[in-house]
Fold:
Amino acid sequence: MNVFSDPMQRLNPGVQSFLKQPMRLLIDGQFVDACDGREFETYDPATNSLIARVAEAGVADIEAAVAAANRALVGPWAKMPPAAREAVIHRLADLLEKYADDIAQLESLDSGKPAAQIRAVDLELAIGALRYNAGWPSKLHGQTIPVNAPDMHVYTRREPIGVVAAIVPWNFPLCQACFKLAPALAAGCTVVLKPAEQTPLSALLLGKLAMEAGLPPGVLNVVPGFGKVAGQALVEHPGVSKIAFTGSEAVGKHIVRTAASDLKHVSMELGGKNPNVIFADADLDVAAATAAMAIFFYSGQVCAAGSRLMVERKVYEQVLDIVVAETRKLKLGHGLAADTALGPLISADQFARVSGFVERAKAEGVECVIGGQKPGGDLANGHFLEPTILVNASDSREVVVEEIFGPVLVMQPFDTIEELTARANNTGYGLSAGVWTKDVSKAHKVAAALQAGTVWINTYGQFDSAAPWGGYKQSGFGRDNGEEGIEKFLQTKTVWTHCS
Ligand code: ADP
Structure:
């Protein structure tokens, strides 16, 4: 049967039965309706058809969730020995592994991303984040400090920072939730998780599994809802100590300004306009094929997308030909179909935004070599956009400097390293970059010169829960993953004891 005619029929029985249940908020260990009974709808972006109605958190629900998280912060969770806390986090990872195929299908339906890719990438990263951070509780030791004053014993304690508001976007819903939840739990914090309004479902399933894993009530609360209401209420709430945010630069800046009123701790993972640089001495076949996936993976809805491909002039045409050939191979389709390489954009708004960039660029004389159209047939009702390659764009064009967050690659030639690094750095963003060359010293020289939180050499888009991830400049501050990933959920207490 054509997947577009009834995608729900493609779902595993476990996902079908999950979707038959009411989609409620998780507050204090209970699944509850919103106080005012409001609900919102979540749609399949590949067909534009309704998947489910979901309880919509309002201000009163945020109040209840934050109160529950504050109670849990000083309840059994605070007294749990490190080994027990580690075990709970591992049990949650076990459950994600057990239900990985179901979760991938649910996430695919809600986000449009190919289920097989979610299973291979998002689930592995989410499970990896839980497993990596599960090891921390027993290792969060302070220090003894040799102070100058006599008869003093001074030591430090590493304590949880408090209630964490984890506010996450729609492009990696489960994965981003776990990047924040895992270290927050390991640090002993409690969490109110607000998934994006476009993709609330996997967070609710995560909440259900967290309860099954034995997380005490109130340690994880899940509050689907809209940014301007539920998100804003969380950011303003005095009972929240820390905001861990991934999303757009505009909302990130707004949150920082709001959080300044009571000096909440904030960490921000924002957007990127990531230069992917190919030198003439690179393995061009591998570099160019990877460059196509670096931008088109998840239809370019990835903050790390290699959206600006800069190629040394003497091999520019050759690389362009390979990237175009690779792009032609990418099949658009429903995320639940096994042969789909690229899914739709998340929403009609996102489609309008991305295609607006393409249309304005074309009107300004930028050349579109491939793509740029909305496909018809089975794909006509979804928010699909063909993978698009733009060339002949000068550095000042918005498609060169702005984050498009869609399947749109801009290719530009360069001549020298100095020119390349100056141009690549001439953007407000600084999230990630790629460098392709067989010359080791050139690779490291360019990696050092690029202003980016992550640089990939002769590879692209690698992640690991042990490797810090975050931005320079307006791509944000604070790091997810690795040791720095847990640091931001801890605070240090210094204890002085007079012992004469
Ligand atoms: P995107 O462009 O990826 O949709 P957004 O920054 O709009 O990114 O959204 C990321 C997350 O931030 C979502 O969960 C959204 O609901 C939330 N959000 C949006 N506006 C606000 C706000 N004013 N306060 C708090 N959270 C918000």
Observations:
- The CA atoms of residues 466 and 482 lie 4 Å apart.
- The longest strand covers residues 152-160.
